[in-house]
Structures are given as C-alpha cells and as structure tokens.
Amino acid sequence: MPEYHAPLRDMRFVLHEVFAADKLWARLPALAETVDTETADAILEEAAKVTGELLAPLNRSGDEEGAHWNDGVVSTPAGFREAYATYIEGGWVGLAGNPAYGGLGMPKMLAVQFEEMLYSANASFTLYSALTSGCCLALDAHASEELKQLYLPRLYSGEWAGTMCLTEAHAGSDLGLLRTRAEPRADGSYAISGGKIFITGGEQDLTANILHLVLARLPDAPAGSKGISLFLVPKFLVAPNGELGARNALSCGSLEHKMGIKASATCVMNFDGATGYLIGEPHKGLAAMFTMMNYERLSIGIQGIGCAEASYQNARAYARERLQGRAPGGARAPQKSADPIVAHPDVRRMLLTMKALTEGGRAFSTYVAQQLDLAKYSEDDERRHAEALVALLTPIAKAFFTDTGLESCIHGQQVFGGHGYIREWGQEQLVRDVRIAQIYEGTNGIQALDLLGRKVVANGGDALHAFTGEIRAFLDAPAASRPFADRLLAAVENLESVSAWLLEQAEQDPALVNAVAVDYLNLFGYVAYAYMWARMAAVAQASRDNDEAFYGAKLATAQFYFTKLLPRIHSLDAVIRAGSAPLLELADDRF
Amino acid sequence: MPEYHAPLRDMRFVLHEVFAADKLWARLPALAETVDTETADAILEEAAKVTGELLAPLNRSGDEEGAHWNDGVVSTPAGFREAYATYIEGGWVGLAGNPAYGGLGMPKMLAVQFEEMLYSANASFTLYSALTSGCCLALDAHASEELKQLYLPRLYSGEWAGTMCLTEAHAGSDLGLLRTRAEPRADGSYAISGGKIFITGGEQDLTANILHLVLARLPDAPAGSKGISLFLVPKFLVAPNGELGARNALSCGSLEHKMGIKASATCVMNFDGATGYLIGEPHKGLAAMFTMMNYERLSIGIQGIGCAEASYQNARAYARERLQGRAPGGARAPQKSADPIVAHPDVRRMLLTMKALTEGGRAFSTYVAQQLDLAKYSEDDERRHAEALVALLTPIAKAFFTDTGLESCIHGQQVFGGHGYIREWGQEQLVRDVRIAQIYEGTNGIQALDLLGRKVVANGGDALHAFTGEIRAFLDAPAASRPFADRLLAAVENLESVSAWLLEQAEQDPALVNAVAVDYLNLFGYVAYAYMWARMAAVAQASRDNDEAFYGAKLATAQFYFTKLLPRIHSLDAVIRAGSAPLLELADDRF
C-alpha cells in the first residue's frame, strides 16, 4: 500500500526561507503572539503524523468501500468515524479559525501546508472538514453575533460540520437559475424548500450536527443572481444553550455514484420547509457565499497539489526500485539484471515535471496564503494591494493547481506502466480523486472567465500590473543573485504583452474573453510559477554551500522548469492571439 | 444512458472522398474482386447497427458489473455471452482475415472504421476479439501450414479466441528479462512453464477454446531479447480434426482490479508444463510477435479515437440541451431561462478540440491503414514505400491517438460539469477506459523511443523524408486548391528542421533520443494531423457547393485545427531543442 510522508523540509524551505514567514508574523500584531518559527514547525511535525499515520492508511480502503446510504442515513467507510474523533481532538478543524470563538488563529501560510498534507493523505476524508472551515469563514464574516456564539465554537472543534448547498439540478455554473425558496416565518426564521445536488458531506455519521449554508430565494426576490439569499439550516435545531433539539425538515435523498472521492458522501439534499436563519442581508447571499467560495477555491486548488505530491512520492519510489532496460550511454546498475527506471531520461522527464509543478504550486499556494494573511491582518495600502492580489490569483490557484495536478497524477500513473492501472497500487485512485477538483467549486472554465473577465479586463489590468510590478521589482536586484532572470523577464513581458493585446481587443470583440480565458489562465499560471521558481532558485543559490544536496536539487528543478515547462507559453500565446473567430464559425447544429 | 451512433457520413468522407479508396481497391488485384464502394458502405451500415444496437447498450452495465473470477473460471458480465454469439454470427472477427483460411479479406482501410465503432461502443467487449485478430495475423505470417489449417478458420469465425502472453511481473517494457521456459518434448511439442500477467481475455466464457501466444525461452536460449521464442498454447488441446481434447496445463490465477475496462478480463496466467507449439524459428519469437504487436498497436491507437468519438457525441448532445448562462454578446435563446451551453465560446473550444482531434485521428488511421493495404497488396517500390511509412507512423498512431484520446475524453467530461463526474452519465467511464490505451501494447514512452530511435535516427531520417516528401508533393499543387497550405508548409519545415537538429545532436549525445522522444512524437503527430486536415480541407473546399452544411463544417474545423491546436508545436519545438541536459542534472537520490 502506498505510504505518505509529508515533505516537511520542502514546506519549511518555502515558508521560512523563500517567504520569510517569521518576519511577516513578527510585524503583524495579531500573529506576533500566536505563531513563530518554532510553533509553526511543531505544528507541521504533528500534522505530518496525523496525515501520514492516521488518515493516509484509510485512503485506499475508503475508496474501495465508499460511503453508504440507507434510507436517508449515510455512513462513512470503516475507520472514518474513529479517525475523525481522533482528528478533531487535535483541534485541527479550527487551525486558522477566529480565536474569539475558539479557533487557533494560525496564519493561512501555515494552514495551506496542512491542507496540502490532508489532500495528499486522504482527499475524501479531508472534504468533510474542509467544508466546515469554509462555512466558519462565511459565518464569521456575515452571521449575527448570536449565531456566531452558538455555532462557531462547535464548528471549530469539529463537533459539528458545515456544508455549502448551492447547486440544483438545473443550476450549476449559472446560480441565477436556482429555485429553492425561503418563506419568512413570524419568529424571524425562514422555511426553506427545494432540492440541492452535489452536496459534499450533506449527510454523514461523523458529527452530531450538520449546518447547511443554503442559497435560496425570498418571495420578493428579483430574478437572477441578484435575488439570492443565504441561510443557515441545521440538521438538528439548536437550543440557545447549544443543546440539540428536533430534527429539521431536511433529508438526504441519495448519494451520487462517482468516478472518485468515493469515501466522500456527495448528497442529494431535500429541504421540505426546513427552518433556516438568514445570514447577511436579503438578496446578497451570493456575495456572502463567495467569502466561503474563495476560501474553498484555494483549498480545492490545493487538492491538486496534494494529490500530485502523493502520486509523485509513489512514482519516485517505484522508479528507484523497478528494473527495466538500460540507461542510454551505459548500464547504471551493471550488477543487476537491468537499471532502475529512474535512469531513463523519459522517466526522469515525467518525475521532474511532477516535481517542478508540485513544488511550484506549493510555493504559489504559500504566496497566495501570504496575501490572504496580509489582506486579513495588515493595514491600508498593504492590505489593499494584498486584497487585489488575492482576487486576481485565487482563480489561477484553483484552476492551475488542479489542471497541473491532473497532469502530474497522470504522469505518476504512467511511471508505473501497467501497474499504474491496477487499483492496489493507488496511482489510479489519485487520478480519479484529483479529477473532481477541476470541476467543483466552479469549473476551471468558470475560474478562467473570472480571471480574465473580472480580474483583468474589468479593471483595465490594474490588478495584473500590481502582480507583474512585483515581479519586475524582484528582477531589479543584481542579476548575479537572480538566476533565470532573463527567462523570467521574457515570460513577464509575454504576459504583459498578451494582456495588453487582450485589453485592447476585448473592447471590440464581446466573445474574446470567453474564447481565450482558459488559455490565458494557463499562460498566467506558467508565468506565476516562473516567478516562484526564480525566487526559490535565488534562495537556493545563496544557500547552496550549506547543503548542496538540497539546494542543488532545487536549482536543477528550476532549470528543468525554465527550459522544459515554461516554453509552453509560446503555444498559449499563439492560441490566444488567434482570437475568438475560429471558435464561432461552426453553426451550433453542425457540431 | 448514453447512445452511440457511428459517424457514417464522416467515415465515408474520409474513405471515399479524401483517400479515394475505390480507386486503390480497383487497381489492386487482391482487393478488386473483394470490395467496392457499395460493399464497403453496406458493411459500414451493418457495423453501425451491430455496434450501436448490440454492443453499446452493454457498455455501462459491463463497467458496473465487471468480469468475475471464481476458482479459475472467469465469467463476463451479463449479456456479453449472448452478444458475442450474435456478434460472431456476423463474421466480424474475420473481417480483414486471410480468405484462404476463412477470413473475409476486407482491406484495412475499411476495417479501421469498424474498429473505431467497436471501441466507441464498448471497449471492454472489443478487446476480446481484437486480440483474436492480432493472433490470426501472427499465425498467418509465421505458423506452419498445419497449424494454420487447424486454427485460423476457428479464430476467424470467433468460435475460438486468441491472446498474447508477453508480460511477466518483472518484465514489462523490457521483455528481455522474461523467464517463462519452454522444454522440448520428444513429439516435437514443448512444455511451457511460467507466469504471465496482464493477459487480456486469458480466460473467459465467450469461446469454446482460447489460443495463447506465449513468449518463452528454450533451454539453449541466449540471454536477453534475442533468446525469446513464440509458442501457441491452447487452453484445450486440439485433435487434428479440430475436436477439443484434454484441458492443457494452464490456468487463470486471478483477475486484476483495474481503473477501467472492467468488463475485460485481465488475467494472471499460470503455465505448468502446458503443451505448446513453436511458431516461427527458435529465438526469433519477438520478431514474430511484433507482427501481432504492430497490428495491435494501431488497433489500440484506434481505441483512443473511438472513446473520444463516443465522449464527443455525448458532450455535443449535452451542450445543446443544458441551459446555463448567456452567450457573450447577447442571448441566443431569449425565450428560455438561459442559453444552451454550446453558445459559450469556452464550451465550443472544448467541443472543437475533441472534434478536430478525433476527425484528424480518423483520417490518419485511415491513411496508415491505406499504407498497410499497400504494404500487403502492392508491389516493388510502392510496397517498400508503404512498408517504410507503416513502420514510421505506427508508433505515432498508437501514442498520439491515445494521448489526444485522453485529452478529448477529459474535455468531454468537463463539458458536463459536475454531471461528468457521476457514473450514470458515462463520461467518466470513457476517461477510465481510454486511459489504459496509453499504457498497454507498449507504453506511449516506448512508442516514442521506437519512433525517434529506430524509425528516424537509426535510418538517418530516410523514412521521415518519405513522409515529408509526400506532404511537399501535396503542397506543390496550386495554392488556391490547397487551403491552409502556408500553415502546413511551416509545420513541415518545423518538423524537418527539428529532425535535422536531432539527427546531428544525437551523434554526440546518447541520452538525447530518450530525453526528447515523447515531445518529438507529439510534434510529429500535430504535423501529421495538419497534413490530414489540409487534405480534408482541400476536398471540402472543392465540394462545398454540393453540401455547404457538411463541407463548411469541415472547413471550420480545419480552421480551428490550424489556428488553435497546431500552434502547440511551438512549445514542443522549444522543449526538444532544450535537449537532454535539464533531465540529467538531478541525482537519482535527490528526486
């Protein structure tokens, strides 16, 4: 069975050496008391144990068994209940939660490392609490003080769980079409009625209560996405003292049978006049839900990195052990019947692709998390700058982490040859599990539209220039301390140039943004990773003498990234500049 | 449940209009009596019925149920036995078989259309007879007249089935490591002992007998791949009159649990002194097996096209029905709550990518099949030219069809959003089923090494120039009758230039071929498809006035291919020219 060992050394490298988290934490009052390098490292060590020893061993068995539905009751696979009980004892659900309500208040920069470990170890298990974390964020930002006092501590403790109920059978990417109704009651609560699908953890046997965040329409709601309100709908009604009362009028009608994440219960939920409480203002539910969505989008992005890391660890181990053929240019292990396949350049190509994308992704997730921390804890210009970067980079993180995550998992399966297709080796499960991450929390196509339409074109490229300006400032340092500076500069210039072209063309061509958004997001992603690899390489070059094996490997991987992966932007650039016309010529009925 | 309708109009377009099969058939004596346009169309019509009505309805249920193993006995999913009986009544297994032994002698150009339909309808079912067809080819080419008389008619009829037993647990890509032994017996037969894995259809309940083609070592065999012989090992021994005798000493130890093709029994086979018969010469079994392998490689390539076509048909239907959002630039269906998603350029991008790759692949598979027919039925220079093209293009067909097949199936799943991840819609099964095609019959990495190492570098580019020379001859026609001629010319020049660079560099760098083979194969594949699309576009332009809807769609798809997909060669070119160094820098233990 595959094992998982958290890449602690690499995580510390990114956190402490590349992004100097300790300096940031020390200067932000809310964090200075909470965390320092030593605390962070202790948490990471403990997190590595929990994910590697408690959760990873349940990943394969959970996939084989799946979640069960029986007359509305959902049970998780063998071992999940016990593991969940142990897991929440560690306080992990509230790791980055608001300390005023029982959270631990840890920075997002640290939390993303833990999230990556979780997804590497057991994506299905992770989803149960990932939704809770997002639910807490939405409540913390938009709920009344009374509701926060009542619910947040029990969510942070993991005693109760949260869900997000958005999608309906006819309303997915287009939430404006949703029909679930909310009727006001005399006591200030609402009666929620309607059907929701694809509800992760909508029902389960891990927690005593489940709190559903439900999007629904008030009777006087305007049509479309501006008439949607957000409600908190608990499975069991809750007394003011926190005691559980009557079962609410909602139920799980069935579970979906899926390609992967089979141990995660994906529920059809029916609300039949269930009691709900308005969160935030009427008709502004979509905006409130986006507090949660943006958090979830980064988290789901990290699922891509986590699955890729797990696949990489397995593929690396197999490539060192499996003996087939001889290395070109002479036997590497002449005493054996054949060389380990890691000796074959084509196998190294697959492993290096995984390694460069995963480590680039880890750095970028940490960078985005740093901006989230700055947006939350810093002031004025620094805060506004960070908020702009978060808005700009979140769709890239979600889509690019998961697209490259699938690519990495496919490579990791391919390294195993035929064994990669066999269930017992675990590599095919990672492909199946990671695939959903390109779809849920807004498909990657939707992310790309958000990026190019709302985050670049709509503000005339301001947010983009905030990001490219930062890269240019980095490049202003002496070239000797900036390996790969020329290649990074060329890549940034390419991003700026194609963005300028798009800003100009989009004025005349209403279809352009939709037509090239995915290609643009990918180009942006490769440039962002180039920035990450240049920063990692700069640190590695300066520290090389201290630990040649570790820092030399970083530089070799950076070299691979710049010469073998970054050139993908050449094609993307050409495809973007081909514009929208080639997509529009074919009549709908001629497909 | 998804339906499948064979794309007959598109197949006839490729066969009759683009490649003028009737003219070729008329001038080759062996085919002139056998087939003409009318016969071919009648066969295609019938094939469409068999695949659409008999096999496609068993695809989902077969996946859900899977093949079963019970104490050495393997049963196929419900409905497979009955469908197989009906299927072989039609004579389909021997469609392209040698008429001297009961085959129908149809050209490969026609057979590949049928193979595509089979894989679209039900990949698992198809594999049972696909291996039989390949087995027949190997026997026809290398077995004694006595064995051919005894076995071939019952294989062509589908009464018996064939397998290929190559892989052992420690010997996959490197067959030189295999250990299965063959001891000569006094009666001229051999006792075969050893274990084989990943044997498709190694045991099943569809046919009365199963004939295993087994690679094994004679006692005096040299080490490595030059000491391997090929044996025919029947499940039941066969009397000279064809009656079945005693059960042979071989058994199925278990079935593999796989990511997909679950209705195909993938067997662990144990040979315990089983009686076998030498096929071809001692120690030359690998060459004999390659007769079968090359055939299978094209067939498995076509699995990529077939699955992609099925995924495309489903995605197209869904994209026309599913209402979400509004088209940029104004509502397309203002009377409805939202526009069908086919109106969104990003959805059109995914559909057009599938369409352009699948139709390009269909044309290329037909082109390679034409070369196979010429290699089999023509003479002298024409035959040698065709043989060289078959050798050059087979690895491209296998790897590029399946890599782009996976890409297409992923797009087809993505078009469905969340529903694409749910089993009942069938799109996720196509992703799982097509994935194996990149792995078996020689991984796509192995195909790439075969292409660049043996088929390009080893002959100094001669075969390559035979192919590019043909494209240049095509381009010599007046430009007005050759739409996209400039883009095709630039692409061919790119292929020639990077090939020349590789031929030169490979002399000094022994790792280069292994390092860039996959990128080179992909670049070659896009250029080959560009040639196909230019040929299709030339025909479509000349015929446009006859049927604007059909030929206009071909031209629009060609336009998409040249502007949105072909530019992928820019990145591949840069990555190839980055050479082997970036892959070799990292020490094995630093991955």
Give a verbal description of the structure.
Two copies of one chain form a homodimer. Chain A has 591 residues and is α+β, with helices and mostly antiparallel strands. Chain A has helices at 8-18, 21-27, 29-32, 37-55, 59-65, 80-89, 108-121, 123-142, 145-156, 285-321, 345-377, 380-415, 427-435, 444-457, 462-475, 485-506, 512-543, 548-565, 568-577, 581-584, and strands at 68-70, 73-75, 160-165, 181-184, 190-200, 209-216, 229-234, 236-238, 244-247, 250-255, 266-279. Chain A has a domain at 291-582: Butyryl-CoA Dehydrogenase, subunit A, domain 3. The longest helix of chain A is centred in the middle third of the chain and has 37 residues, at 285-321. The model of chain A has no long low-confidence stretch (mean pLDDT 96). At the A-B interface, helix 10, helix 11, helix 12, helix 13 and helix 14 of A face helix 10, helix 11, helix 12, helix 13 and helix 14 of B. Chains A, B: Residues 164-272 form the Acyl-CoA oxidase/dehydrogenase middle domain. Chains A, B: Involved in the assimilation of dimethylsulphoniopropionate (DMSP), an important compound in the fixation of carbon in marine phytoplankton, by mediating the conversion of 3-(methylthio)propanoyl-CoA (MMPA-CoA) to 3-(methylthio)acryloyl-CoA (MTA-CoA). Chains A, B: This is 3-methylmercaptopropionyl-CoA dehydrogenase. Chains A, B: InterPro entries: Acyl-CoA_dh-like_C_dom, Acyl-CoA_Oxase/DH_mid-dom, Acyl-CoA_Oxase/DH_mid-dom_sf, AcylCo_DH-like_C, AcylCo_DH/oxidase_C, AcylCoA_DH/ox_N, AcylCoA_DH/ox_N_sf, AcylCoA_DH/oxidase_NM_dom_sf.
